[in-house]
């Protein structure tokens, strides 16, 4: 894919996110917000490190008060880069390698008038505090007038609804993934190992315009088809193997996530039947997806379509789909227990599936909710790739 223009977020983009957050803080009577998880740091400051989630050293802190600029607090090693690229915030540094000490954190909170009252932290749904729990506990003791509340609802109220630029980043990630699926299945030959296929897929994601190949899940061969979260092994493919390939690419921090399938052999009517039925169920459900539809209704519609198709799905991932954005899985979850209502700008995927002795028949589709319905962002051939 040849894109002429990079999709970068501006100072104005990031500042508006912070202003919206500060408005919510006031409405919900928070004195401020402490963020330390990589995706939230990214969202509210546009700062990303070279190896997110791969190190416990040098945690990052972002303090958002009621008014004014947030304070991004990083280790001195990261300071020159943060000072150069972070947006909409004041950048400061600490020197202790493994974490700022609690007295330093408390000092910033006092400065921003966050040392008392209701302070929001990443304690709840699909959120994680990104620094040492001992420091967190000591910080609470240092600030006895502050009460630390779960701010996940506030955070997700912003991050679940994507801007046009965010949607375009996910579109590019999906385009790169579509390209990788097509090129990888075209290159597969008997005798190749899963590792070789995974390496090809990663290269094709980059060739297709991704910044990073986010993940490759691959399973092949009888007895393995239920291992749907499996990474590549040295297993060599042979005739008669079904191949399930689930790829996720990243562009400017935003993810894609969808799967396609193949078979080493001639066309097989049974495998075509299962693939066609899952395709039918998925697409018929998608026709009903639009703003204002409760997630629970999407589950009901998909369940009805499965029954109408005369099949029984058994893809055990705990839900029928999920949201996406700066994480490969985000709220909402397409399940009966989620009370979210779809809104324009949400990104979700849908992934009912059948797993049996013939293969794993799952056609994951990435969608953006539009004004009047939804748009499919995932591409590539949805038929079984028969490789002869």
Automatic annotation (TrEMBL):
It holds the Pfam family Creatinase_N. CDD domains: APP_MetAP. InterPro entries: Creatin/AminoP/Spt16_N, Creatinase/aminopeptidase-like, Creatinase_N, Pept_M24, Peptidase_M24B. Residues 169-371 form the Peptidase M24 domain. Gene3D superfamilies: Creatinase/methionine aminopeptidase superfamily, Creatinase/prolidase N-terminal domain. Residues 17-161 form the Creatinase N-terminal domain. This is Xaa-Pro dipeptidase. It comes from Marinococcus halophilus. The lineage of its organism: Bacteria, Bacillati, Bacillota, Bacilli, Bacillales.
């Amino acid at each position: 894919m040849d894109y002429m223009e990079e999709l970068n977020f501006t100072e104005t983009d990031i500042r508006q996110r912070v202003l919206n957050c500060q408005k919510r803080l006031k409405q919900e009577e928070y004195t401020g917000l402490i963020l330390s998880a990589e995706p939230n740091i990214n969202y509210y400051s546009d700062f990303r490190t070279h190896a997110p989630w791969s190190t416990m050293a040098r945690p990052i802190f972002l303090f958002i008060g009621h008014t004014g600029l947030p304070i991004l607090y990083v280790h001195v090693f990261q300071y020159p880069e943060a000072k150069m690229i972070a947006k909409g915030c004041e950048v400061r540094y600490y020197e202790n390698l493994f974490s700022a000490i609690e007295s330093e954190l408390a000092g910033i909170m006092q400065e921003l008038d966050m040392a008392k009252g209701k302070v929001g932290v990443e304690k709840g749904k699909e959120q994680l505090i990104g620094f040492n729990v001992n420091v967190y506990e000591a910080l609470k003791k240092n600030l006895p007038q502050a009460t630390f509340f779960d701010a996940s609802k506030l955070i997700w109220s912003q991050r679940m609804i994507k801007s046009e630029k965010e949607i375009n980043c996910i579109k590019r990630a999906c385009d790169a993934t579509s390209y990788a699926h097509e090129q990888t299945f075209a290159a597969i030959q008997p005798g190749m190992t899963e590792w070789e296929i995974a390496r090809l897929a990663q290269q094709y994601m980059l060739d297709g315009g991704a910044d990073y190949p986010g993940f490759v899940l691959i399973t092949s061969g009888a007895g393995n088809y239920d291992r749907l979260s499996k990474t590549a092994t040295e297993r060599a493919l042979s005739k008669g193997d079904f191949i399930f390939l689930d790829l996720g690419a990243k562009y400017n921090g935003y993810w894609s996530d969808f799967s396609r399938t193949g078979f080493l052999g001639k066309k097989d009517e049974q495998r075509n039947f299962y693939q066609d039925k899952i395709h039918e169920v998925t697409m018929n459900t998608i026709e009903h997806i639009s703003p204002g539809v409760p997630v629970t209704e999407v589950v009901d519609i998909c369940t009805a379509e499965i029954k109408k198709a005369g099949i029984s799905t058994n893809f055990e991932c705990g839900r029928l789909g999920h949201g996406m954005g700066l994480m490969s899985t985000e709220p909402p979850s397409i399940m009966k227990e989620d009370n979210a209502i779809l809104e324009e700008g949400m990104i979700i995927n849908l992934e009912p599936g059948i797993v049996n002795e013939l293969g794993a028949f799952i056609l994951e589709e990435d969608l953006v909710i539009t004004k009047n319905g939804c748009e499919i962002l995932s591409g590539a051939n949805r038929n079984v790739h028969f490789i002869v």
